[in-house]
TrEMBL record:
NCBIfam families: HDIG. The chain crosses the membrane at residues 9-26, 32-50, 57-77, 128-149, 169-191, 197-215. This is HD-GYP domain-containing protein. Keywords: Membrane, Transmembrane, Transmembrane helix. Residues 412-434 are annotated as: Disordered. Residues 242-364 form the HD domain. Residues 220-415 form the HD-GYP domain. The lineage of its organism: Bacteria, Bacillati, Actinomycetota, Actinomycetes, Kitasatosporales.
Length: 434
């Protein structure tokens, strides 16, 4: 979202306009403003701590507001957090507007459902188990609004095809939000008890412990990603031909994976696979990577070992999963003429077939010192010509559809002298890196 497409900006503006009436109290509504302010301050403090720890959104206080306050007052609770919490990536204004409008609408709807079902009276009277019914309905409404708006933004931003923008969002969101909703209900009940708001804060203590544990996991994952970036930078320094190429192969792999409808976890694995596909070049002598002129058969055999070197380098990184297979097999061909093992057809792992198409596409559309970039249309035509022999037609088709929706912006990736003897030293039809 660093460069927000115009459609996404319009979508965010429309959601914000839709949220504005939700913030206006009805004439007959007497909102407890001290409780609204206290919950808003608590939400801001918790949101700031959560984002500093590992990112994410703090829902228990929001849902407690939905259970305690009239809808218009509950919709005000997330606003200070949206305005005061730091924004990590530009553009700042659309992100802040989205952070404010989306939860405001979701909390407003949750409070409406909860109030309609008599939930606030049940909370005040601590009427269990009946209080669970309106609270559960409110959590479901909260989840439905969040996922509906999220899917709309994904579609408007062109991140996924519209037909797949909402797939799986509700099922992935419902369970964690339900846990947050239970904590919010406990906060609301204690808030209305004789012990007051101070007792309600005790509910947050066990959740803070769980968030701390989750934060350790995210820090470990961030360390792994830093290791991956260091490996990619080392490859870029050693082989100027691939400078920037790995990141773009990761991006193209993500386009294909999303077009195929893969879940977010697999999409992330494919991104890692694309970024690290050439890491094995660290094991290839630099003189061969930078050699001017044709390679001898022996030198070519040495360079063709780089997928195996790469696989060995990342073998111990457990979270990469099937990305390791993509690193090993991304130079295999559908007709069995590739390397290192000459696999054919479905014997080539799906992730490797995706990375192979992304790798070849970026190689053709990037300007190299020995040749200019081909237009995207020419590169697509070449991929389609080689589909069925060199590339999986399904992966090629997915990339073509994604390009029609999102476009592609190739960039200069090398500023050093040519070192491979020109296109003849690459894959014969696509110009893919050796």
């Amino acid at each position: 979202m660093d460069a927000v497409p115009p459609r996404a900006r319009v979508y965010v503006a429309c959601v914000a306009l839709l949220a504005v009436p939700c913030l206006l109290p009805l004439p007959a509504t007497h909102a407890p403003w001290w409780a609204t302010g206290l919950l808003a301050a608590l939400c801001t403090a918790c949101e700031h701590g959560v984002r500093r720890g590992f990112g994410g959104t703090f829902y228990p206080v929001l849902l407690a507001g939905a259970f305690l306050l009239p809808p218009s007052a509950a919709a005000l609770v997330p606003l200070p957090a949206a305005l005061l919490s730091p924004v990590e990536h530009p553009p700042v204004v659309p992100r802040r507007v989205w952070r404010a409008a989306q939860p405001a609408l979701a909390v407003w709807c949750a409070a409406q459902v909860h109030g309609t079902l008599g939930g606030r009276d049940a909370v005040v009277g601590r009427d269990f188990p009946y209080a669970l019914l309106p609270a559960g309905a409110a959590v479901l409404a909260f989840c439905l609004v969040l996922t509906a708006l999220d899917g709309g933004l994904r579609a408007a931003a062109g991140l996924v095809p519209p037909r797949r923008a909402w797939r799986g969002l509700l099922t992935r969101t419902l369970a964690p939000v339900a846990v947050h909703g239970l904590a919010g209900l406990m906060m609301a009940v204690l808030w209305r008890s004789p012990y007051g708001p101070v007792a309600a804060l005790l509910v947050l203590l066990p959740m803070c412990v769980s968030w701390w544990v989750f934060a350790q996991y995210h820090r470990e994952r961030a360390a792994h990603q830093a290791t991956i970036r260091a490996l990619v930078q080392a490859v870029d320094i050693k082989d100027g031909y691939t400078r920037g190429h790995s990141e773009r192969v990761g991006q193209a792999s993500v386009l294909i994976a999303r077009e195929l409808g893969m879940d977010d976890d697999r999409v992330e694995v494919l991104r890692f696979a694309g970024i690290l596909h050439d890491v094995g070049k660290l094991g290839v002598p630099t003189r061969l990577l930078r050699k001017d002129g044709p390679l001898t058969p022996e030198e070519r055999r040495i360079i063709e070992l780089h997928p195996e070197y790469g696989h060995e380098m990342v073998r111990g990184i457990s979270f990469l999963g099937e990305a390791r297979a993509a690193i090993l097999h991304h130079h295999e061909r559908l007709d069995g003429s590739g390397y290192p093992y000459g696999l054919a057809g479905d014997r080539i792992p799906e992730c490797a077939r995706i990375v192979a198409v992304a790798d070849a596409f970026d190689a053709m559309t990037s300007t190299r010192t020995y040749s200019r970039a081909r237009p995207v249309e020419a590169a697509v035509a070449e991929l389609e010509r080689c589909a069925g022999t060199q590339f999986d037609p399904r992966m090629v088709g997915a990339l073509v559809r994604a390009l029609h929706r999102c476009g592609w912006h190739p960039a200069v990736t090398a500023d050093e002298p040519s070192h491979g003897g020109g296109p003849a030293q690459r894959a014969p039809s696509t110009g893919a890196p050796r």
